[in-house]
Write a structure and sequence with these properties.
single chain, 484 residues, mainly alpha, two-stranded parallel ribbon, 21 helices, 6 strands, 61% helix, 4% strand, Hydrolase, Zinicin_2, Zinicin_2_N
């Protein structure tokens, strides 16, 4: 596992043992520097680095290379890592369309949220990269921007003054570094992902239900389940997600805004590095002390500690991802459990996949650079199951009408309070919080409209036309006989 300073992580699942030995011998091997035997000298390394910069000149000077992440470089590296992949066969396209159509019919019995409609497509890894890159840019850019600024802010004032003239070049180099790491991460992910919104992340274009049949065939080759059943199961999961993303309009933006809020509070702490440097006593000039210090350095973690002042954004992200995937797993099990006997086995295989790498938190760590705890999907599945039993699927799914009605992180560990609230809201009086909010908003809008139509009145009670104020007061007086 290689981890960059930006927080990107990606697996090196290369089967070429010789290449691994080369990279172990040569610390620059992962970037293509050094001879085949890993013994290239410093001159060779610098020469190759210069050639790389020369070859990337167009990338650095292009609009795509000018921002906090060199996306042109990232896309080039990702496509190189994907290598050549066969085009999706026509029979696979038909199989995907039929599987989604069948899954949608079954899901109609498990949720009141209607089908997402839109287009149904079959992708290969290259298609996935092309189609999802715009959303990855939305997620990555704010983190990279604030990371760059946090790195500058963490420097001493005199260091910031000295690097002022070189700031543009350093930003370009930083953008290249992020681009290389992003490209490797996306290239790796493109070969693993099974759908357009795998891991519960809405990275596919809106109103697009996308399935990757080639990736599914490779990942499920050891699963003793008919290929058609696997395809329908994965299609059902993706179709269920798309129902949420299509009919819960605030959901996608809530996920993105949580990432942006986290990024806005990024803080880099290098105090432990400064303390370690002081303890090494390098100023003494003693060769033995310096040698000892170098040995101690090898065992130290000198990476900066990255955190965010807006830690609550990560917690909301964890909870929201858990609720999405938990709801999807519950409704798919309800839709398919009695129809397809292998549903339980496929659900268990999906959970293993989530635990060993195919998960939202690992995708975020690889691509976006945010690390957080694994969402509590199993707890969310149980919460939705209990809500279904307690109040039925219609009341269960109305929870998605507003973010304030969703279960909290605490409810995932103890769902009783949330279930009790659902039961109270659906009691004999028929109280519906959504309807009450809509009624209040309508009343407020009506009040504004009425106020705007009424003529303004002066302090004497007469309007601008000079007419007397409402005679209802006089009429009331006559009726009670007071004459007042």
């Amino acid at each position: 596992m290689n981890t960059g300073g930006f927080g990107f992580s990606f697996n090196n699942d290369d089967d070429d043992d010789d290449r691994r030995r080369d990279q172990n011998q040569n610390p620059f091997g992962a970037f293509g520097f050094g001879g085949a035997d890993g013994s290239g000298g410093l001159g060779d390394l610098l020469n190759q680095f210069g050639q790389m910069l020369s070859g990337m000149g167009s990338s650095m000077n292009s609009p795509e290379g000018a921002g906090p992440v060199n996306y042109q470089l990232a896309e080039r590296i990702a496509r190189q890592q994907i290598d050549s992949v066969p085009a999706v066969r026509s029979q696979d396209v038909s199989a995907v369309e039929e599987s989604v159509r069948l899954a949608e019919l079954w899901l109609d019995d498990a949720t009141v949220l209607p089908t997402a409609e839109g287009r149904v497509v079959a992708w290969n890894a290259e298609d996935w990269l092309t189609e999802t890159l715009p959303m990855w840019k939305r997620l990555v850019t704010p983190v990279a921007e604030h990371m760059n600024q946090a790195q500058i802010d963490s420097l001493p004032a005199e260091a910031r003054d000295m690097m002022g003239p070189m700031l543009q070049m350093m930003n370009q180099m930083s953008g290249m570094n992020f681009g290389m790491q992003l490209g490797n991460a996306l290239g790796d992910l493109a070969k693993q992902t099974l759908t357009g919104s795998d891991f519960g992340l809405p990275v596919a274009p809106a109103d697009t239900t996308a399935i990757l049949p080639g990736n599914i065939a490779r990942s499920a080759k050891d699963l003793n389940v008919p290929a058609q059943e696997i395809l329908v199961y994965i299609a059902a999961r993706e179709a269920a997600r798309q129902r949420l993303f299509r009919h819960v309009p605030w959901l996608v933006e809530r996920l993105v805004s949580s990432v942006e809020e986290y990024a806005a509070g990024l803080v880099i702490d290098t105090s432990h590095i400064e303390e370690a440097a002081r303890d090494l006593n390098l100023e003494s000039g003693d060769p033995s002390a310096i040698q000892d210090a170098m040995q101690r350095l090898q065992g130290m973690d000198l990476s900066p500690k990255i955190s965010s002042r807006n830690a609550g954004a990560v917690s909301r992200l964890e909870t929201l991802l858990a609720l999405v995937e938990g709801w999807v797993e519950h409704v798919v099990t309800e839709a398919m459990g009695q129809r397809v006997p292998s549903t339980g086995a496929m659900t268990e295989a999906w959970r293993r996949r989530r635990a060993t790498g195919g998960s939202a938190e690992q995708a975020f760590a690889k691509v976006v650079g945010i690390e957080f705890s694994a969402p509590k999907v199993a707890e969310a599945v149980e919460l939705w199951r209990r809500a279904d039993i307690a109040v039925g699927q219609e009341r269960r799914d109305k929870v998605w009408d507003h973010p304030d009605f969703l279960p909290s992180a605490e409810h995932l560990d103890n769902s009783a309070e949330f279930i009790d609230a659902l039961l109270d809201e659906g009691g004999a009086d028929g109280f519906d919080p959504i309807a009450e909010i809509n009624k209040l908003e309508e009343m407020l809008r009506g009040g504004d409209s009425k106020d705007s139509l009424e003529a303004p009145k002066d302090k004497s009670g007469e309007d601008e036309s000079g007419e007397a104020k409402d005679e209802s007061e006089d009429e009331d007086g006559k009726e009670d006989g007071s004459g007042r």
